[in-house]
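Researcher: Good morning. I'm working through a list of sequences from a screen, and I'd like to move beyond sequence-only analysis. For each chain I'm collecting a predicted structure so we can compare shapes side by side. This is the next one on the list. No need for commentary yet; just the structure.
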Amino acid sequence: MSTPEGTTGPTVPGESAIRELVAIAERLAREAGALVLEGRPDRVEVAATKSSPQDVVTAMDLASENLLRERLAQWRPEDGILGEEQGYEPGTSGITWVVDPIDGTVNYLYGIPAYAVSVAAVVGGPDPATWQVLAGCVHAPVDGRTFTAGLGQGAYQDGRRLRVNSAVPLELSLVGTGFGYVAERRRAQAAVVADLLPLVRDIRRIGSAALDLCTLAAGGLDAHFERGLQPWDLAAASLVAQEAGAVVRGLHGARAGSAMAVAGPEQTVERLVAFLEERGADTGP
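Model: Good morning. Structure tokens for this chain:
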């Protein structure tokens, strides 16, 4: 275990320990992904809602998270876990698993194949403001794409090393984004997108922030920005993007978090951050 030179941040395990965490993250994500895919009925029903009637939870979200928690209790009983559906359970090891049992639940509800299981191991607490992500896996069950990353060990899609696109001007950039579930937040986000759209090549809204960031890492997007991302949205996919060469940050010098996350090659991110700061994209409802 070590702390990076010149920092007072969380203690980081060695390379072999990180490789083991990556392997566990992938094993977890694949097993939960198989459950999600094979157990999907022809018609998925909404089991509950959260922040609004549009913010849905299915029975499979709950079943997938239960599986992840059961496996982690068996394989890593001293670690903590933060999951989207069941909250935070602290551990004693200093490592916390941050899991999203289905990222892209609305896509799952409608049978749109852009959804994923996201699993990450972090130190420094389950908060993007303080954590260091050590290992992560984002697995898309429908097409089988599996993205993995370990701190300092690169990012991969199904064994292929990933690298983000080189920076290009905003007018040549394909930019991904997403929207919240509350009407007032959506109005504010729509206004930002309306101003940005004439300035970029085009905008994509895939419906899964984890897949957005992994698509960026694989060269399928030039940049991504989104307000309202939660720790389970960011953890694994942000490491995949960073290990592929992306900068992942917030506005006004802040780290990426719920206020705003912007990702891409450094020069593109600088231009996009300047645009978002000018329009106050991290303020309001």
